[in-house]
Amino acid sequence: MQDVERAIFDLRRGLPVVVDAHDGRRLVAPIEGLSPELLTDLFNQAEDAPRLLLTNDRLRYVNQRDHASAASLAIADTDTREQIIAWACAPEAALPATRPLHELTAAERAGLDLAHRSLLVPAAVSIAPDARCAPQLEACVAERQLLAVAAADVARHRAEAPGLLRRVSEADVPLEHARYSRFVIFREPDGMREHVAILIGASEAWDDPTPVRLHSACLTGDLFGSLRCDCGPQLRASVRTIAERGGGVLLYLAQEGRGIGLANKMRAYQMQDDGLDTVDADQVLGFDKDERDYAVAREMLAQLDVSHIELLTNNPAKLDALDREPIRVAGRSSLYGNLTTQNRRYLTTKAERAGHWLDALLASPDTPPD
Q1: pLDDT band at 120 (very low <50, low <70, confident <90, very high)
Q2: Would you say residue 340 lies in a domain?
Q3: Are residues 141 and 186 in the same domain?
Q4: Domain count of the chain?
Q5: Cβ distance 211 to 313 under 8 Å?
């Protein structure tokens, strides 16, 4: 499993990885690390035409029709790096109409999954190495200059990751609206994300069901007070509300930008400035409208021995995701942030396209910015 975790970090560094599967070996390079030199090397080492791997969400946006699964597009030696990157993540790009899409091999599916989980743009270039390059490739793998992973291990790592969450440290941290609170830090097995459980008040005094809030990290809103979202006010309202109710748990999850990461969130923001809404902007980059996985939240609560909860949320997806063994959701309470001129469009999109329960907030007049 350590090789899968290292593969994620190698992709984040812009390095290709080798993926082995029952249907063959593929060398997979992330789009974000695609330099002209690397593209030339891929062509020189390829048995046939390299392929651009695209998620079903990206294909759905580009082709304006449903795609049940990810697919690949053959790359010609006349295609430039800039064209390939545009096909992967530019709003206005159209795929070459004369080139068919191909079903992904098992190795390509695993490689695209790794790129997706690395918080890069979820697109990659894949080649089947030419036989004449096999000795050199094997030497690079043997010397660990290139990492080789099995597609089966990639799938197993994803399935087992929530159960491998580790509770690594904790300490009391008094907060402005909750003088008695304790921060408990959990780390995912690949080391990329650390999540925080904030235990507010004395656990023996908590209500049954226990008030619980899931809050996804938002650097711009939580720390800098961005007016583009309501995250910062929601976070502070969560702490205050839980404290006023005698205590409970706030899970602060490292799932920036609904799970796409900070860099991709900024890319999506730029597209929103150019006219797209938040859902379409994420789809341009190849993401679903919400990439968060709440299995980690269930595991955190289980390790904290919290199983019967009242969820503070406006998001039906959180309600559905949490109400599974070993967690039972007894009820829900709404929790609003501030409505501003700058975030009204964003919140309206969440209500209309993701089903968030925000009617009461959106019916109120804009709150003028500070």
Answers
A1: very high
A2: yes
A3: no
A4: 2
A5: no
- Interatomic CA distance for residues 12 and 192, integer angstroms: 11
* Bridge partner list, 93: none
Rama region for 360: left / alpha / beta (φ>0; ψ in -120 to 50; rest) = alpha
Active site (catalytic) residues: 290, 292
pTM of the model: 0.90
The CATH number for 38's domain is 3.90.870.10
DSSP 303-357: HTT--EEEEE-S-HHHHHHHSSTT-EEEEEE------BTTTHHHHHHHHHHH---
What is the domain range of residue 19?
Answer: 2-159
Find tokens 């959180």 and name the residue.
Answer: 318
* Same domain, yes or no: 131 and 180: no
Q: Is residue 13 part of a domain?
A: yes
Q: Pairing between strand 101-103 and 166-172?
A: unpaired
pLDDT tens digits, one per residue of 16-28: 999 999 999 999 9
Give yes or no: residues 83 and 218 share one domain: no
Residue/partner pairs of 340-347 with CB below 8 Å, 24 or more apart: 340/227, 340/230, 340/366, 340/367, 340/368, 340/369, 341/227, 341/366, 341/368, 341/369, 342/227, 342/228, 342/369, 343/227, 343/228, 343/229, 343/230, 345/277, 346/228, 346/229, 346/272, 346/277, 346/278, 347/230
Cβ contact 18:148 at 8 Å: yes
Report if residue 270 sits inside a domain: no
Cβ-based burial of 122 (10 A; exposed 0-12, middle 13-18, buried ≥19): buried
Note if the bond before 326 is cis, omega within 30 degrees.
yes
Residue 363 has what pLDDT? 83
Do residues 154 and 169 share a domain?
no
The enclosing domain of 232 has a CATH number of: 3.40.50.10990
